[in-house]
Specification:
This protein has 15 helices and 14 strands. By secondary structure, the chain is α+β, with helices and mostly antiparallel strands. The chain folds into two domains: 83-337, BirA Bifunctional Protein, domain 2 (2-Layer Sandwich), CATH 3.30.930; 364-449, Alpha-Beta Plaits (2-Layer Sandwich), CATH 3.30.70.380. A seven-stranded mixed sheet has the order 1-5-6-10-9-8-7. β8 and β9 (288-298) form a beta hairpin. The longest helix is centred in the middle third of the chain and has 22 residues, at 239-260. The radius of gyration is 22 Å and the shape is globular. The structure holds 3,4-dihydroxyphenylalanine. This is phenylalanine--tRNA ligase. It is found in: Mitochondrion matrix. Its main location: mitochondrion.
């Protein structure tokens, strides 16, 4: 596992982690269904606490380019997109041919379009990251109370039904590229690879960044081959369903060999609301099992909502960063976003090369402790960290947590690792950042600093 974790915090970690499917470089034991597991359902829900991001977003909006910022920082109910996040939208790293993400993407596309058979996979690279909850969740049978729809986990443009209430009218930054499945299927696409930036509020460490990239693949089959409209039960028992699952597995195993060379693989039964059956593919790489993708036979209910009850097919979704970090030996996810020539000049279209770190500047550690209010969401604190320090903040760890039984209050202590990838930071600079973070934490999160 690429991430190092302190044992003491593993319980709260695994909760925070439960959305980590497509990004975490995970072992088999890591909670695997990022957007989609129900694990984090047990997390407390903020009730009435002001979303820090919204206030920050508004205050700074004057500085921003009106055209793009105004689209995602609106001040509407539930809006929690910050200027820091807004600035990531439109970078389109996946379309840069000499960028590691662009190189991996091209390599995957090359594989799919070299498969024999009559299907051509359409390449979809520029779907808008601003989507409706309808496309991102409802069309995929993701229920309104799913943890992935909570404002602590997702960046919303607006939630007309109220900050805490999920509705089909919500507008948000897509949390996965599956958000485009139904739109593309409805428009008549038979097979496609859809790549884009996706956004999730999350913890901070070497393999988590609030924006990352996914690729969604879909292939529909000829009804003459697999059957047409039938009941869900009938479908699941049918030869057609088995045929599609077998084609999916063969195709994705081939993809792994294409990317990693001959590797050992294993299939794990999974649950996703929008596929049935669902599988996850892992490969044995560098001495560990690593999750590569989620996939399955598209749920009849999803196709029915597309007006395609007579069609069947498979789908998969994979995270480009997790693959690129392994294939290029890129140690920190922030590097994908740097314009530093020492990074960008190392990569060339068509070549999987090993990244040579140009230097590692010293880290600086700062702790912050506070009594948490009811419904405290760690992600809200991490968001403030991003807002204050941007990518100078390398990692945030919960290093201590205890409850004072007399006061009935719980304290969290977080250790912040500040480090620039490009230069040395001064003490003054870091002290300033830390002080700002303390102030904002106290004023925005209703915590009591210790
Ligand atoms: N959208 C899922 C996620 O981000 C990944 C995924 C799983 C995509 C299964 C699929 C699929 O198309 O069939 O966690």
């Amino acid at each position: 596992e690429v991430q190092t974790r302190t044992a003491a915090t593993s319980a709260s970690r695994s909760l925070m982690h439960s959305r980590g499917l497509m990004l975490t470089l995970a072992t088999a034991s890591t909670a695997s269904v990022r957007a989609l597991s129900t694990l984090s359902a047990s997390r407390a829900v903020v009730t009435g606490a002001p979303a820090c991001a919204r206030m920050l977003g508004r205050r700074s909006s004057a500085r921003m380019s009106v055209a793009s910022g105004a689209r995602v920082i609106t001040g509407e109910t539930g809006n929690n997109v910050t200027p820091y996040i807004e600035a990531l939208i439109g970078r389109n790293l996946h379309t840069k041919v000499d960028h590691p993400l662009g190189i991996i993407k091209a390599k995957i596309e090359e594989y799919f379009n070299s498969l024999d058979g009559e299907v051509t996979f359409e390449i979809k690279d520029s779907m808008d990251p601003v989507v409706g909850a309808k496309e991102c969740f409802d069309d995929l049978l993701i229920p309104a109370d799913h943890p992935g729809r909570k404002p602590s986990d997702t960046y919303y443009i607006s939630r007309p039904g109220g900050r805490e209430l999920s509705s089909s009218e919500d507008v948000l930054l897509r949390t996965h590229t599956s958000a485009h499945q139904s739109t593309l299927i409805k428009s008549g696409a038979e097979a496609f690879l859809c790549t884009g930036d996706v956004y999730r509020r999350d913890e901070i460490d070497a393999s988590h960044f609030p924006a990352f990239h996914q690729m969604e693949g879909v292939k529909l089959f000829d009804p003459a081959l697999v059957g047409g409209a039938m009941s869900r039960e009938e479908w699941l028992e049918s030869e057609g369903c088995k045929l599609i699952a077998a084609d999916l597995k063969k195709t994705l195993e081939g993809l792994c060999d294409h990317l990693f060379g001959q590797v050992e693989k294993r299939w794990i039964d999974e649950y996703f609301p929008f596929t049935e059956p669902s599988f996850e593919l892992e490969i044995y790489y560098n001495g560990d099992w690593m999750e590569v993708l989620g996939s399955g036979v598209i749920h009849s209910g999803v196709l029915e909502k597309c007006g395609k009850s007579d069609r069947h097919g498979w789908a998969f979704g994979l995270g480009l960063e997790r693959l690129a970090m392994v294939l290029f030996s890129i140690p920190d996810i922030r590097l994908f976003w740097t314009d530093d020539k020492r990074f960008t000049a190392q990569f060339k279209a068509g070549t999987l090369s090993t990244f040579k770190p140009y230097s590692k500047y010293p880290p600086c550690y700062k702790d912050i402790s506070f009594w948490i209010p009811e419904g405290f969401e760690p992600n809200d604190f991490f968001e403030l960290g991003r807002t204050v320090a941007g990518d100078l903040l390398e990692k945030v760890d919960l290093v201590d947590e205890f409850t004072n039984p007399k006061k009935g209050k719980t304290s969290h202590c977080y250790r912040l690792t500040y480090r620039s990838m490009d230069r040395s930071l001064t003490d003054d600079e870091i002290n300033d950042l830390q002080e700002k973070l303390r102030e904002l934490t106290a004023s925005n999160l209703l915590v009591e600093l210790r």
